[in-house]
Write a structure and sequence with these properties.
Oligomer: single chain
Radius of gyration: 24 Å
Largest sheet: none
Order of helices and strands: HHHHHH
Structural class: mainly alpha
Helix content: 55-70%
């Protein structure tokens, strides 16, 4: 059975034959659903389960050599505010995002560079915020997994005792029920482990998207 030290990058062998992993997109949605948008700080206690290093937030300077974006009120520009969530959304293909950025630049007017800077400020803000929520969700999920791991271990010990002491049909029935519960909890653990393994890629994907959008926006500036 898994221990409290388990980092669930691999499924349990018992369920490799039966469990179906959740898709990464669904897993990400589930993680975000349990994390209030206002909670950006990660829980303490070394809960990070991913192979990928944990980077708390992205730095604009790593991907943007244009004008500074700190403190820019990008939401005050209605066209920028409408376009930012479309560009930041992972469901928008990068090629389509590039086309929308080019169209925006053509209609930006005399203040094109300033408005494109606002556009990047908004995209960076949105992606960084989403990424922070996913990091928190992954660690919160990890904490739940550790709790389930403890329960599975306790159930395993109890089952061994029940089987050893079973002398009547009623005792054997009780042991069989306990074994079913143990197998069910183990299956849940395994399915969740596979979901988290998939969603661990999400912060990296978001970082790559931020870099790609930064290049596309910068390319439209004079």
């Amino acid at each position: 059975m898994p221990s409290t030290r388990t980092r669930f990058a691999r499924p349990l062998s018992l369920l490799e034959r039966t469990a179906t992993p959740l898709r990464a997109g669904l897993a990400a949605a589930l993680l975000l659903a349990i994390v209030p948008a206002a909670e950006a700080a990660a829980p303490a206690g070394g809960l990070w389960p991913c192979i990928q290093p944990r980077v708390d937030s992205l730095a604009a300077a790593q991907m943007w050599d244009g004008p500074p974006i700190d403190g820019l009120a990008w939401r005050d520009d209605a066209a920028v505010a409408d376009l930012v969530p479309v560009l930041a959304a992972r469901r928008t293909p990068i090629e389509e995002a590039g086309t929308k950025i080019e169209e925006f630049a053509k209609q930006a007017g005399a203040n094109k560079d300033a408005r494109l800077t606002l556009l990047f400020a908004g995209v960076f803000d949105q992606i960084n915020g989403l990424r922070a929520r996913i990091l928190t969700g992954i660690e919160r999920y990890s904490k739940h997994q550790i709790g389930l791991s403890d329960r599975i271990r306790a159930e395993s010990l109890d089952l061994a005792k029940l089987k050893k002491a079973a002398t009547t049909d009623a005792d054997k029935t009780k042991a069989a029920d306990a074994e079913k519960q143990l197998l069910w909890d183990t299956r849940i653990y395994d399915t969740r482990a596979q979901a988290v393994t998939a969603v661990c890629e999400s912060p990296v994907i978001l970082e790559q998207r931020a870099f790609a959008l930064a290049r596309a926006i910068r390319a439209q500036m004079d």
